[in-house]
C-alpha cells in the first residue's frame, strides 16, 4: 500500500469535498497505522463537512470522528499488527485526520481494543452516538433513575436518541417517551422500545412556565435549545436531565426555580475527552447489551457521504449510518 483513498474537505480555492489519493503516512513514536473497516456519520461529521459548520479549523482535513479497523503497523508496544481496535473522540476528524479514509495513523493512546463479543461493524453501528447514549443512561442511573421511572428522550429518531431508546428498553425500563418530529419514525421507535412517540408540540404545553406540572422523572436531551428550556420545568422533584446535543440551539433560557424548588439536576455529557481508562468499560457494556443489530442502519460508501451529510444538516436523517470503508479496499 503506497497510496489510498480518503474523503477530504478543503477551503482552497473555495470550500469543497472530494475523494483524494493520499500517500502512506510515516509513523512517529507511539503511533499506529490502522486499516479502517468502518466509520459512521454523526451530526458533528456533517458540521465538519459543511462550510459554515464551525468544526474544522485547519484545512485540508479528513472528517470522521469514529473508526474501527485492524492495526497493520505499530510503534506503540501496547498494540501489534492484527489487533482489532476502535477510535472515537479526541481530535479524530476535527484536528487530526479521521475515519473517512482507507488507512489512518493515530496515537496509540487513542485506541481501545475491540471487545471480544463485538464486531468491527457493530462498533461503528454504535460509534460516538452509542458511546454518548450509554454515558447519558449511566449518568442518570447514578443519580437514582429506576426502571419504573418515566424517561423522556428528545431527538429520538437521531443517532444518540434512538440508541438511548434501545438501551433503556434492553435494561427493562417500562415508561419511555420518545419525542420526534418525524411521523415516519413512530412505528420504528415503538418497535425499538418506546412506549409512546410524540411530536414535541404534542408533548409540551403551549406556554413554558418557570414551573410546570411534574410529569417527567428523567430526561435525556439530544437537542438543546428550546426543547431543553421546555423540559426542565416539567421534571419531578429529585429529577435530572442529561444533556448531550445542541442541534436545536446553544442557548438555554430558564430560571433557577426547578433547581432550587424541585432539587433537579442538569448533567452535561461529553464523549470526546472521556478518560481512556473509562472507555474500555463503556465499550464492553455496549458489547454486552447486544443491541447493535436491532438499530436502524443505513450502510454507505464514500460516494454517498455528501448526500447523507445534507440529510443530517436538513434534519431528515434517521438512525445510524455506517460508512463501509472496507468496500473500497
TrEMBL record:
The chain crosses the membrane at residues 123-145, 151-172. InterPro entries: Acrylyl-CoA_reductase_AcuI, ADH-like_C, ADH-like_N, ER, GroES-like_sf, NAD(P)-bd_dom_sf, Zn-ADH-like_protein. The keyword Hydrolase does not apply. One of its GO terms (molecular function) is acryloyl-CoA reductase (NADPH) activity. Keywords: Membrane, Transmembrane, Transmembrane helix. The lineage of its organism: Bacteria, Bacillati, Bacillota, Bacilli, Lactobacillales. This is Alcohol dehydrogenase. It comes from the Bacteria. Residues 8-323 form the Enoyl reductase (ER) domain.
Amino acid at each position: 500500500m503506497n497510496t489510498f483513498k480518503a474523503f477530504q474537505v478543503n477551503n482552497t480555492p473555495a470550500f469543497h469535498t472530494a475523494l483524494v489519493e493520499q500517500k502512506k503516512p510515516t509513523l512517529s513514536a507511539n503511533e499506529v497505522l490502522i486499516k479502517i473497516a468502518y466509520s459512521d456519520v454523526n451530526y458533528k461529521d456533517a458540521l465538519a463537512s459543511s462550510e459554515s459548520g464551525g468544526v474544522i479549523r485547519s484545512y485540508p482535513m479528513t472528517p470522521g470522528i469514529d473508526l474501527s479497523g485492524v492495526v497493520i503497523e505499530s510503534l506503540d508496544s501496547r498494540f501489534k499488527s492484527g489487533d482489532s481496535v476502535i477510535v472515537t473522540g479526541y481530535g479524530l476528524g476535527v484536528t487530526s485526520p479521521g475515519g473517512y479514509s482507507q488507512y489512518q495513523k493515530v496515537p496509540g493512546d487513542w485506541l481501545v481494543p475491540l471487545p471480544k463479543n463485538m464486531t468491527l461493524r457493530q462498533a461503528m453501528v454504535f460509534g460516538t452516538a452509542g458511546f454518548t447514549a450509554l454515558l447519558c443512561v449511566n449518568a442518570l442511573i447514578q443519580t437514582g433513575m429506576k426502571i419504573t421511572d418515566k424517561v423522556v428522550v428528545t431527538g429520538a429518531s437521531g443517532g444518540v436518541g434512538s440508541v438511548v431508546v434501545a438501551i433503556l428498553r434492553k435494561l427493562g425500563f417500562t415508561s419511555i417517551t420518545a419525542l420526534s418530529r418525524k411521523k415516519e419514525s413512530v412505528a420504528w421507535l415503538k418497535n425499538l422500545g418506546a412506549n409512546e412517540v410524540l411530536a414535541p408540540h404534542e408533548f409540551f404545553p403551549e406556554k413554558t412556565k418557570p414551573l410546570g406540572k411534574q410529569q417527567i422523572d428523567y430526561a435525556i436531551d439530544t437537542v438543546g435549545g428550546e426543547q431543553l428550556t421546555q423540559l426542565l420545568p416539567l421534571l419531578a422533584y429529585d429529577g435530572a436531565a442529561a444533556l448531550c446535543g445542541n442541534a436545536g440551539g446553544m442557548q438555554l433560557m430558564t430560571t433557577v426555580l426547578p433547581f432550587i424548588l424541585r432539587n433537579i439536576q442538569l448533567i452535561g455529557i461529553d464523549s470526546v475527552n472521556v478518560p481512556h481508562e473509562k472507555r474500555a468499560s463503556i465499550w464492553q457494556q455496549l458489547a454486552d447489551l447486544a443491541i447493535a443489530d436491532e438499530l436502524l442502519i443505513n450502510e454507505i460508501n464514500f460516494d454517498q457521504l455528501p448526500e447523507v451529510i445534507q440529510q443530517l444538516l436538513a434534519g431528515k436523517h434517521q438512525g445510524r449510518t455506517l460508512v463501509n470503508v472496507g468496500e473500497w479496499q
